[in-house]
Amino acid sequence: MRVSKRESVTDEGTEQPVKDDAVHLRRRIGLLPSISFIIGTVVGSGIFIAPKGVLMNSGSVGLSLLVWTLCGVLSTFGALCYAELGTSFRKSGGHYTYLLETLGPLPAFLRLWTEFIFIRLATYVSLAFGQYVVEPLFMPCAAPTALVKLVSMLGVTFVVAMNCWSVSMAARTQVLLTFIKMFALILIIIPGIMALVNGKSENFQNAFDSDSFSLTKLPLAFYSGLYAYGGWFYLNFITEEVINPNRTIPLAVIFSMVTVTVCYVLVNVAYYTMMTANELLMSDAVAVTFASRALQGVAPAIPVLVALSCLGALNGGFFSSPRMLFVGAREGHLPAIFSMIHIRRQTPLPAVLFLYPLVIIMMARGEIFQLINFASFSRWLFIALATLGMIIHRYRFPDHPRPFKVPLAVAVVFTIVCFFIVGLSLYSDPWNTGGSCALTLSGVPVYYLTVKKSYIPERWKKSLELRDKLGPADVCHAEIIILQVGKADID
């Protein structure tokens, strides 16, 4: 087996030919793919299923639109904080890396632990993909649950295969699917706004009047809205593959989040223009119901566009999440096999394949809104901890290079709001969020029994210290044995 000289990339993102016999991830993601990666991951199933959850828990049309706007502002604040973290710590891994660098190994390990348990984005995006593919075939009857899950599994299988095959192919697919999903949003916005301009505004009268408003349910409305905006942090999972991250990450974040926030608010205005609040709550596929009224000529195309939108978010999730597992294994928090890369394709093949059965199993847990509430607790807890760690790191290491620096007030407001939502959600939905909290804390004994290594018998340590016992040549040899598919000829 021979490996040729490769092109490496400096921290500034400039490519230089150097002698490098190691198999490594390479910088291939420019500005347009980065923007497509954020928008394509954020705009998935959320805008097509979350309006029901936001309205159900906010209680009125006006308050739901306010929640959508505030969720966009809050997500933009968080994305700006992560832009600072991504340019301060140039390693991939997102939440895990920032918790490790600022708060230590235990919070970072717990973030990995929850990724194993919840597999958030891929699970409910894949279910939404299956729902939008199958439901139009059975309307007005309900689609069979088993068939929805089967189609969801086929979508997951396609995305996994593509991410195992080629980084470039996955990136190009993401760009293409992003343009498709933006076209779908525009197709919804234009007829809705035109109807509103022409005087169809009866659904907005007394928009804030509601007998079902409850302060305790409001965090769950934010959870649904923030779920729709979820994905703004996934570019940070692949920092080591971004060309010139000091420039690319901030520009991609700002452009993407402003675009998504404006589109999301306008899409919800379009929804309410054509549907009453009760009609929206009764619909399991809001975009399909909207299309049947406002886009009768092209209504059959809407479910296809929404399904492709979900597929783009699913691709983004499977592109990024394995990178966190890859970095965690590289730091010694996971088995060494997850830090291995396919020697020809430069993809983190073991990490991608490991997530595949976990997502399939997670699909059987329950319906989408239960999964959102169950998993959102840990997501926002660790995001809040990461931005808190950023503030602490600023205080402890004021001279640390920070090419992009977010205003301190933005970081403080975002962190406080995240902790408030997390805390109040324990009161609003103690069963789901309490279970999520318990499963998150269950990683503490696992950390002390596996990572710390001083709490386990000596004979067990041998199986956990494979990476420590192998030298660089042996690790490369192990990668070749485990990952080689046929004869690799890398020139």
TrEMBL record:
Keyword list, A-Z: Membrane, Transmembrane, Transmembrane helix
Main subcellular location: membrane
One Gene Ontology term, aspect cellular component: membrane
Protein's recorded name: Cystine/glutamate transporter-like
Transmembrane stretches, start-end: 29-49, 61-83, 117-134, 146-167, 179-198, 218-237, 249-274, 294-314, 347-365, 371-392, 404-427, 433-451
GO MF annotation list: L-amino acid transmembrane transporter activity
InterPro entries assigned: AA/rel_permease1, AminoAcid_Transporter
Membrane topology term: Multi-pass membrane protein
Domain of life of the organism encoding this protein: Eukaryota
Localization: Membrane
